[in-house]
Each structure stands twice: as structure tokens, then as C-alpha cells.
Amino acid sequence: MKIIVCIKQVPDTTEIKINPATGTLIREGVPSIMNPDDKGGLELALELKDKHNAQVTVISMGPPQADTVLREALAMGADRAILLTDRKFAGADTLATSNALAGAIRKLEYDLIISGRQAIDGDTAQVGPQIAELLDLPQVSYLEDLEYDGKNKFTIRKQTEEGYEMVEVDGKLLVTVLASGYKARYMSVKGIVDAYNREVELWGFDNIEVEEQKLGLGGSPTQVKKAFSKSAKAAGEVYEVDAEEAVGIIISKLKEKFIIK
Amino acid sequence: MEIAQYKDVYVFVEQRDGEIQSVSYELIGKARELADQLNEKVVAIFAGHQIANKANELIAYGADCVICMDAPELKDYLTEPYTQAITQLINEKKPSIVLIGATTIGRDLGPRLSARLITGLTADCTKLEISETRELLMTRPAFGGNLMATIICPKHRPQMSTVRPGVMRKMERDAIRKGEVETFVPKFDASKFRVKLLKKVKEDKGKIDITEAKILISGGRGVGTKENFEKLQELADVLGAEISSSRAMVDAGIMPHDRQVGQTGKTVRPDLYCAFGISGAIQHVAGMEESEYIVAINKDKFSPIFQIADLGIVGDVNKIVPLLKERLRITN
Fold first, then answer.
1. Which of A1, A163, B27, B313 lies in disulfide reach of A246, CB 3.0 to 4.6 Å?
2. CB-CB: which of A18, A25, A225 is closest to B150?
């Protein structure tokens, strides 16, 4: 069994800066982590590796320094790591990102592709389903649990607003995983040492199978027109009083606003 | 692509077991505003099986036209049959704008459609406007609510966007509103149907959906324990309110996820939002700042929640709540 896990490196901070000229984000100087849902997806892959002896390839797109999350994935137990990095990929929206990742995956063998449901920096939840479409694969999103029969049948529990659904897929597919379903293992000491002796393969445009006009800023149907910080709403009244008095103030305000009679 | 050929504002109507979901009415309400500005029509895409009798409801909430796609393949939502049907409809009708609810269904369908149609999709928009050049301006939070970005889709059509439930307002129901109901018969390629639905399970996750509540009493770290949440519940009972919470209490296992307000939870806009013992991290504020009236209680007078609260009390929530309940009970 061969599994591909798509991983994104995301900033882990509330201190985000933007370039006012381009409206794009400045990522330098911001601590980075493996996106939580992707980490859950990697855990699912590693559990399948434990049970079914699967071979796990992790793939990410980003600047050269994004190799740290791929090394973390290797240290957790992934077998192979590929970083897509090329100026031609830069400035991509979700569809152009999906085109690059799908272009790379076309060069790989797989039975199952796993991505996180969404990344904490963009929260779009689009890249997984878009890759599935571009590769003509069925998709199951919001995965909470997966059973594999060891041949080609996947039985999946997916989250819905009302509860859950059980679905079944025969053959190759892409799933998007919720971090809540899979608590990621720690890196092993041996894994960490090994990870730094192993190679993260760097792939550029020439390594993947996709037309250039579908990539990067030029291949992005959406554009950021402007980015701005939220304007704070005017603060209301704040009282520092004892509990009795506080109750009196709350009740009179709610009456004034006709919320209570 | 001839952009000028594309017109009208389409809304994907989400039905579950034949029940039209509230988010669809909210989107029709927003679509109505956009279409009026463009002087175009609001069209509801209504897919399902044996659902046509509900089409008039969509008109009552603001649609000019409902296109029914009635097929057994569309009874329950599954990615591929829905993507095939809606792709054909969009290719034939050429809408300028398509709005989709940012639910587990809409967030599964939207990106699949965008990749098949090769057009842009902007996720979880909180504001939709028409520009002077008749483009759709789609504003959304990014980076956990730290940043707002306005996105455009200049060279591709339709301009697609998803919107979370509770963000837009539905119109008043107008039972005598007139509109057209059309049918559209999609052709299916069943060889691509590779996901089989085995069963749908509904779990009783709580009394109501917090996005529908008029009054929400939301507890955070300052409430802290199950026992204190029971006291919040008693207050909620007196006020006819529902209980919600911050992420911290969900992570601690004290409250279920479906009661979580914020960036990774739900977006709410009740008439009254009580932020009790909630510091007001930006991720939380992103989910409740549109509330009509916000009352905050927190021990720390420097809590960011006081910057967005209409009424702030610096004090111990666990002392104030029981007193407030008693006083309200007596006045009632």
C-alpha cells in the first residue's frame, strides 16, 4: 500500500504582518508548525503503515525552509519527503496550489492520498477536494475514522453537522482528515536523528506534470484586492463594581435594550 | 471567457432529508441585495429527490426563480452526483455569482466545482459587495481572524463564494411573493460514482443549534468547571437562552464542540451575547462580534473582550451569575 500525505507549514502566531504594496503576507520571522489537520492525516497514514506495512510519502509546497515540517514527518515515521519549491509556484491561490500538488502526485504511485481538512492560516478547506478533482479521484472530506480491508476497500466515518455518515469506497481516493480524529504520535529520538541524515527531495516545475499557466499567481483565478486589519469596534462601558451592583447594572441595561421586560 | 455573458446570482440550496437548511435562506437574502444592485435575478439551485413542493418557500424568502433538479441520484448529498448536476447547470445557465453555504456539504462541493469549472472560490466570506465595476468583492478573515482580505475573481466566471451559517440575514418570509419554478434534468455518468453512502447517523448533540439562538450565554476559562456551567444553564433557563462556550472549554472536554463559538467553531449573531469568563481572543471574537448586544464579565480588566463589549463588568462571573439568576427569577 502506498500513501501520499499533503502537509502544509503554517505560522503559529497571532503576529502576522502584510506587505502593504502587494497585500501578501510576510512569513519571515514567524515561528512555523505542521498544520494540525495535516498532522492528524499523517498519523492516520502512520497507523496504516503500522497495520498494513504502507509506504508513506509526505509532500509539501512552500519556500525551502518548509523542509522542517517534512523532517518532522520523517522523524514521526514517514518514508519519503518531497518539497515542491520553485518561484513559478509562488503567489498561488488554492486552485493554483492544487494544480502544483496534483502535478507532483501524477509522478508518484499511490493507493490513498491524505490531506488535512483545512489549514489554520487560510481555513479554506479547498486544496484537498481540488486535488481530488484534478486527479479524477473520489473524495471523502471531514474524515474522523478509516478502516482499510487490506485489499482495496475503505470504510470511512465522516463528520456532519448532525452526527456522522458512514461511506465506502472501492479503490483509490483522497480523504481530508480532522485533527480531532487522530492524535499525532511524537517524533522518536532515533527518528529525529535519522531525519536529519535523510534527504528531503526538492522538486521544481521541471519535476512535475502540469502546464505552467496553471501555476502561481498567473494560474490563480482569485486575487487579493486588499488586505487589512480589522477595525476595532468602539468599546462600550466598563464597570468595576461589586457583584450586587453589577447585577443591577446588567438588569437595567437589558431592560433599556428591550432584551428583558 | 466572455464575462459579459454571465449574469444572475445563484444560490446552492442545501437540503438534508428534504429539509431546506437555514443557511440557504440566509444566502438568498444576501443574493437578493447583490442582485438588486446588479439589476439581475436571484436563482435558487434546488437539488434533491421529490422536493419540488418546497420550491415556493425559496421564493417566499427572496428568490426570483427556482431551478429544481429532481433525481434519485440527488436524494442524499454525495460529492460526484452533485458536482456533475451543478456543473451542467452552471455551464448552461452561466451565472455571474454562485453562493454556497460553508457547511460540511458546501465545503465539500464548492472546491470540487471550482476545480471542474476552473474558476475561483473564496471560502467563508463574511462580507459580499458589488464593486463600481460590477465585480463581486468577497471579504473574509484569514490567519485566525487576524487579517481581513478582500478577494476578487476578475477573469473567471462564475464568481463563487462560501458563507458560514449565521453570517448573513434571511429576509422576512413573504408568502405571496411571486417567482418562477423551472426544472433542469442533468445527465449522470454513474461510472464516476465511487463513494457509496452506507448510513447517516444523527446524534443528539444538544437542544438547539446555537446559531439560531436569540440569547447566548457563553462561558470560558473563567467559568472553568462543569458545576459552574450548570449554574450558567440555570441562568439560561430563566432568560430563555442557550449555552455556548469558548474553545478552551471544548478542549477541556467540559462543553461539546457544537457549542463552540469562534473561528474553529460557529459564527453567531444573537440579540444578546454574554461572554462570561471569556478573555476575548481574536479567534473567539471572530465568531461573535456581530452580535447585537454584548455583555462581558471578566476578572481581568485588561481582557480584550472589554474592547468589543457594549457592557463590561470587571468581577467574578461565578459570584455574579447566581445573583443575576435570583434577581431575574424574582422580577419574572
1. B313
2. A225
